[in-house]
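Task: encode each sequence below as structure tokens.

Item 1
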Amino acid sequence: DAILVSTLRSTADNCTAPSEPEPEGVAILDGINDYIDLGTEVGNGVRTIEMWFKLDSAIDSTLSEYIALTSREISFQDNTNEFALSFQPNFVNNPGTLRFDIDGTRPFKSVYSDSNVWNADQWYHVAAVIDSTEGMMLFIDGIKQASTHPNTEATASVSNATVLGTWGEGVGRYFQGSLEDVRFSSAALYSSNFIPSCLDVTAEENTLGLWNFNEATGTIAYDSSGNGFDAILVSTHRSTADVCLDSVILSTSDPEIAPRNLWKVYPNPSRGNFHFTLQGEDLSQFDLIIYNSVGQIISSQHVIGNEVDVNISGEMSGIYFYRIVSEAGTLSGRLLKE
């Protein structure tokens, strides 16, 4: 037996407590005169534009003016070779929808979102794609929208600036809200439904430019692709946000449905066994995806019914993320494995 000489006693948990991921940097635009200049080259030969965005104010079919997420303006008189990802106002077709348009001349080469209702203070993911065989497509929260266009040509190569948060010389059409993980690619990255990662996006072989906005200060947003297309923040503020936590409801087909209130996940935290169930509603099927802190999918299943048990006891302790895609909407959240 050991003798403790002037030694104190206490207790401790030898298992390291899982650490929370650091909040990600975001760009905040005021809707008045803020925008982000991406330069004159990164908008050439683009086949995929994707980003996370969060609106400060809700949008619907009563929207009175265009609101741009990104655009390339040629001139006020000539729209040839332009492109824009913007919300439609009430004086044009499909008001309230998010529209991706290239060339800007008639007949328009455009695709539209299914929904024309967008909540405030909610993160959405959008991906606009131009496939060399399937044409133009739009994805909202990883869900392929019904609207398509046969155009297969990537954005034209010109010397005009591409910007975030505005569109139109002397017009403005400013975006008010937050942007995160903006990526331009020369490849068509998506052709069917996918799960957008809420973690920091990383560059791939065909990435033209990538802006994570993780710089703490300054007016430069560095291009994480390594291609040197650093962006200039014009009157734009910086902050941090947890897209994984804040994107609890990413989309819903029925505004009366509140997925966050219907789904129950328990026990959470646990040592690896989690039960997912839908409360008080009949649901015939749903998709459940679980991924780790670096965005790798560790479990993916299509569930018939409205509940399922998931076992990740073989994984390391830490924070994991889940995403549920169903007719009631798309839901994401966290799992804590002890």
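Item 2
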Amino acid sequence: MKAWVDISAPAHVLVFRPLLALLRERGDEVEVTTRDYAQTLELLERHRIDAEVIGTHGGRSRVAKAFALASRLRALKRYAKGRGYDLALAHGSHELTITARRLGIPSATTHDYEFATLQHHLGDRAATRVVVPDAIPEERMTRFGVRPPKLLQYPGLKEEYYLCDFEPDRTVLDELLVNRARTLVVVRTPPDVSLYHRRSNPFFPRLLAYLGHETGVHAVVLPRSAEQRDYVRSLSLPSLIIPDHAVDAQSLIALADLVVSAGGTMNREAAALGVPVYTTYGGRIGGVDEMLIRDGRLRPLTDPRALELEKRAPGESERVRRDPQILLDLLLSAA
């Protein structure tokens, strides 16, 4: 089988890393496309995944996003036409499923947040199969034209699958000059450039100010863009560490005492790794986060003073590991 995978955001690199390995172990031929967006290219290089770069992110304005979408759709069609693909796979890349449908290629997409409405109206409708966690109620997918047998669901978090073989690398702490005697907090900035998160998060500057003045804390802030990085640095807060480049975020999370994130992936990675995690997300909470909050694995945060800034005891984490072959089999059912 010849498969085409489109990786359009940093988190997708992590999802597809074990799936690409499984496909190639089966003897399948796999070609990967990507776009220049945030740390996507850096992460592809870090994980030694070769990819053809096609297009960029459209930025904040709707007009720019629409232009970038139309441009990338044309470029992907030119790229994929005549290459003999048997199947196209994506994690939320609506450009891939739309292009695949135009070219008559079966496609499967997966995602775990059901309220990115525009993306799913485009991408899910065009896909042959849509694979989501069973924490998302079926009825929330019907408005995108997705119901069984097109809809397939899996137990748990996608992070429990792609982190199945993961073990943390402690050298990341030395790389970032983290003082191990301090409480280590990993902070992920809000997804302000995401289409589904239009309003900035006014809580976040207060959070940074609070952590940045805590002398017993080292808070590693992971920005989503150069603009965010420059803003956090301009605050000149003594307890904040802002990396210059993409880092081994999964190791950082696994070694942290707690995680505070305004976006979904790092929240769920922390939950999968058994690390205390708080969400400051300002948009509508999806089914996966609803489940994690019910189970006590994710805590909403509205006041920085509610953070429990304590060191974790060694071996305190309770990890959940799942077989990525389960995810791959669901995606391959589109062929």
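Check on item 2: The radius of gyration is 20 Å. Residues 2-156+323-332 form a domain with the Rossmann fold fold (CATH 3.40.50.2000).
End of task.
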